Each structure stands twice: as C-alpha cells, then as structure tokens.
Amino acid sequence: MGGTEMSESISRVIEEEKSTVTSSDAMEFMSGKYGRSMIELMQVVKALSDSGILSIASSLLENYQDALSTITEELSDGRMENFIRNVSAVYTLLSRLPPEMVSSFMENAADEMTKGNREHPGKPMGLLSLNSLIKDPDVSSGMRILIGTMKGFTRKTGDHKHDQD
C-alpha cells in the first residue's frame, strides 16, 4: 500500500467516524426533542410491517412501472369505465342528499332487513303480499326512485330524455 492509498484510507476512516458521531448526535437530539413522536412513528411502522402493508407498499414501489401499466390497462377497459361512471353517479347522488335523509334511509333499510329475517327466516315473499306491499305509498315512492336510478345506469351517454309513466 503506497503513501497516497494509505492517506486516502485514513481520511475515509476519519470521515466515517465523523458521520457516525454526527448520526448519533442527530438521533440523540431527535429522541430528546421528538421522543414521543418518534416512538409513535416507530409503532406505526411496526404495525404496517406486521400487517404486511409495508411489504406490499415496498413491492409496489420497486415494481411501480408494472403496477402502473396494469392499473392503466384495467381502468381503460370499457366495462370498468361504465362501472366507474355508475359509481360516480351514485356518489354524486348521495353527496347531494342531506345527511339526515341518507342516515334515515340506512336505518330503515337495516331495520327492514332485520325484521324480514326475524319474522320470515328463509321464506320467500308471495305475489299477493308483494302486491300489497307495493301499494304502501312510502314503498311505492321509494321504488319509483330506485327504478328511475336503475334506468340511468342503462341509458347511453347523452340520451337524457325524460320518460313519463
């Protein structure tokens, strides 16, 4: 080993020691000033690691080009475009309704499902009972809304003529 090589090695060792001291000083400073936050961050990282989400995210980041091309390919499929359009329409509809109305609807739906299972478990509804149920004004108005919404899913883009019943 020549003099130049040895002086380069010694310089590299000194620089590594300086960076080690600097790193430990930084860690000490961080743990003193941000100790609780650092502990919480490490707990989040551990939870992500234990659940497997961290490895999934790491794999996606390592293979982001393949993942991006797959996602792009799937989203450009015509059926997926229709699905996204329909989900967007439902979201738009729900976002324009007052929260109390949506909450009330969901509570009623849950109550009716529970009631139906409790009163007639596994028994299908007959035509006569279905007919009498449809005559109820609340049910009838709700069915009109649902049927109108379903028609919107099958209507072609730009075909927004208003049907009269």
Describe the 3D structure:
The chain is an all-alpha fold and 165 residues long. The protein has three domains: 3-73; 78-123; 125-156. The chain contains seven helices and no strands. The termini are far apart.
Count up the helices.
Answer: 7
Number of strands: 0
SSE order, as H and E? HHHHHHH
Structural class: mainly alpha
What Rg, in angstroms, do the CA atoms define?
A: 32 Å
N-to-C CA distance: 97 Å
Query: How many domain regions?
Result: 3
Strand content: under 5%
Rounded mean pLDDT is 76
How would a textbook summarize the main sheet? Answer: none
Shape: elongated
Please estimate the helix content.
over 70%
In the predicted model, the low-confidence regions spanning at least 5 consecutive residues are none
List keywords for this structure.
165 residues; mainly alpha; 3 domains; 7 helices
